[in-house]
Hints:
The chain is α/β, with parallel strands linked by helices. It is built from 15 helices and 16 strands. It folds into two domains: 3-171, Alpha-Beta Plaits, CATH 3.30.70; 177-463, Rossmann fold (3-Layer(aba) Sandwich), CATH 3.40.50.
Amino acid sequence: MVEHRLSSILAMDIVGYSALMQKGSASLLKALDELFRSTIKPKVKAYGGRVVKLMGDGAIVEFTSARNAVLCASEIQDLMGSDPPPYNHPERLALRMGIHAGDVTVSGADIFGESVNIAARLEAAAPEGGVLISKLVADLAGSGLPLILHNEGIRRFKNIEEPLQVFSVVPKPDGQASTTEAIGSDDVRFTKSEDGVNLAWTLTGKGPPLVRAPAWISRLDLDMRLPHLAHFIKNFSKAYSFIRFDARGNGLSDREIPEMSFDQLVEDLRAVFDAAGVDRAPILGMSQGCAVASAFAARYPERVSGIVMVGGFALGRAKRPEQKDRDRASAVQAMMKVGWDDDYPSLRDMMADMIVPLASVEDRRQFAEAMLKMVTPEIISRYRSVLDEIDVTDVLPHVETPCLVLHCDQDRMHPAEQGRLMASLLPSARFVSYESPSHIPSENDPCWPQIKSEIDRFLAECTGTGH
Length: 467
């Protein structure tokens, strides 16, 4: 009986092997043997891998974990660039690597199949000293890697029928880990709303203030694990004092609340501005946070220097002209009240799939589990009712501050038409659409680098920082 299994395959080879052999085969083979024994074999073993086969100029390695395959490849490449290198040879040797995951056919100690072939194609396309991985590997590895995955776009490979989205693995710069540690959410503070609700807020990073309006549901101590938010926090905490808070009924803020209304969400934003000592700042709005930020700017124009809007909407589902939107609003509210705490697969999994569809399966599942810790079934139903009744069409024409309106063209949570409607009603807005199914782009979404660049430029203009 033929055995099959799911594996992550790392293919590697020595760059310029044939030319090096011509210069001196004995010294090269001795150096490669030293490299294998001192570096490659120990690292593969440490990450639970298995060397399937050694060729003269490379190797095929099998892992049960995509994450371990990526980490192992990165560490080997780091050691290859060390000084002195982990071998004795007159010339600097370089490896290139490729990683893919999928079904393999097992024959004795050997493995075969398209996954092995694709890993070899990725390896051949990798630059000197580089690692290329497929999107499938990136998804399986999940977020939180101590590495940067740079989107290299869609590529076609010889004898591989379907094109592949490819990422290159880039080590984080020195000091990156300490920077990430510095932007955690342990320093949680509290302020009271005008009706006495305790609101949990935090500030990360240094620089001019940037305030995030309350969006969807949240819990400050989980933010850095969430695929729709962690990369925003990391990016903006590098240049700004990034202030964010849990909305009433959410996360670390009071769960027992006297009122849940859109007007109160706006006033809660003012309370956090005051508690953080912010006189005037740009606001980052995401989803319903765009409407909250707009109403705040119309009410307190002197306090807002600009608004970034990602995935926003002017009309909640219950206010939209299509009957199916209103029906969906009622159905989702009812489902949230009775099914919010269901086991997997759950309504929360569906929400995670709609918000960050391009995040890894692991990250979406973790997001769904985190949602249960953010809010109770009773509160989420009340909260959803408030969001469905949002209508800021009369407010938007009175927003004087510049606005950057960003929306993904295939957003299934709130369609791009809602973003265009907001931009059309704002006196000073620029609308930019991106090709993506995301509501809030995850870090591995191909449009994230473009969105990040747009936001960075806009905020630099708002704050006069030139970042």
